Amino acid sequence: MPVIPSPSDGIDLRYDVAGTGPPLVLLHGSVLSRAIWRGLGYLEPLTEVRTVIRMDLRGHGRSGAPHQEAAYTQERFVADLLAVLDAEGHDRAALMGYSLGARIALSAALRHPRRITHLVSLGGSAAPQQGQVDSVFFPGVIEAVRQGGMEEFCSRQGLGPEVDSRRGRATRQAFLAADHLAMAALLAATDATTGIPDEELAACQVPALWMAGTEDHPRFEQSQRAARLMPKGRFVPLPGRVHGSTLSPPDEVLEQVLPFLR
């Protein structure tokens, strides 16, 4: 697995590469890792048409996990992403992100449009994020993680030691592997993320596919609005899905993503 230093603070950034074709970077959501793309069935179909780069975002997986809120700004995430592209020798790439990863992909497309060929936003948003981590997880999540650790984070979402479903156990184990102080810092930084002005979205010429669950409020409305503002944006609803089920099952998502990337 390649590892490079972040250009902003030197922490380790880990990622892997598979497949052939034009590059596509996959960016996971908060408290997850690059493993989600293989686990949910995205990796194999995508590697048939693309060189797929799966990043462990800073604070997640096997990448470095600083404990300072200032380490998790959009600027640092985008700098990490571009550093990985540079390390792999790619001037341009498509981006596909879920939740936090979708916001990073959007930030990269707005700030470095010449380097981004396509943007796929899954459960993403261009709106201010104040209060949204409580909405996605549960009220008071930042302090709960800071004080009670990842066990508290799991238990508050019905993923305590008694969980018996296969998916529930796998999700619990993934959450418990996270550094709780890094996650608290990440969630606090996310909560402080400001909105993207409409005029910036309207000026972006990167082709963008926005998808969100019809039961994922307010992400559904926010994604729909952002897609409408972008000149080359398109919105596709995912019927019946909430935020946590945006990616699963993958078939309905890939039916839209694969033709879009082609």
E-strand count: 8
Uncertain runs are none
Shape descriptor reads globular
If you average the pLDDT, what whole number results? 96
Organism: Candidatus Brachybacterium merdavium
Keywords: Hydrolase
Domain AB hydrolase-1: 22-149
GO molecular function, one term: hydrolase activity
Can you give a write-up of this model?
The protein is α/β, with parallel strands linked by helices. 41% of the residues lie in helices and 18% in strands. The chain contains 11 helices and 8 strands. The chain has helices spanning 35-39, 43-47, 74-87, 100-111, 132-136, 141-155, 166-176, 180-191, 198-203, 219-229, 251-261, and strands at residues 3-5, 12-18, 23-27, 51-56, 93-98, 116-122, 208-213, 233-238. It has an 8-stranded mixed sheet, sandwiched between helices. A hairpin with a 6-residue loop joins β1 (3-5) and β2 (12-18). The longest helix is centred in the middle third of the chain and has 15 residues, at 141-155. It is globular and about 45 Å long. The two termini are 27 Å apart. 47% of the residues are buried.
List keywords for this structure.
single chain; 262 residues; alpha/beta; 8-stranded mixed β-sheet
Topology (SSEs and partners):
Blueprint: E1 3-5, E2 12-18, E3 23-27, H1 35-39, H2 43-47, E4 51-56, H3 74-87, E5 93-98, H4 100-111, E6 116-122, H5 132-136, H6 141-155, H7 166-176, H8 180-191, H9 198-203, E7 208-213, H10 219-229, E8 233-238, H11 251-261
Parallel strand pairs: 3-4, 3-5, 5-6, 6-7, 7-8
Antiparallel strand pairs: 1-2, 2-4
Organism: Candidatus Brachybacterium merdavium
Pfam family, one: Abhydrolase_1
Domain AB hydrolase-1: 22-149
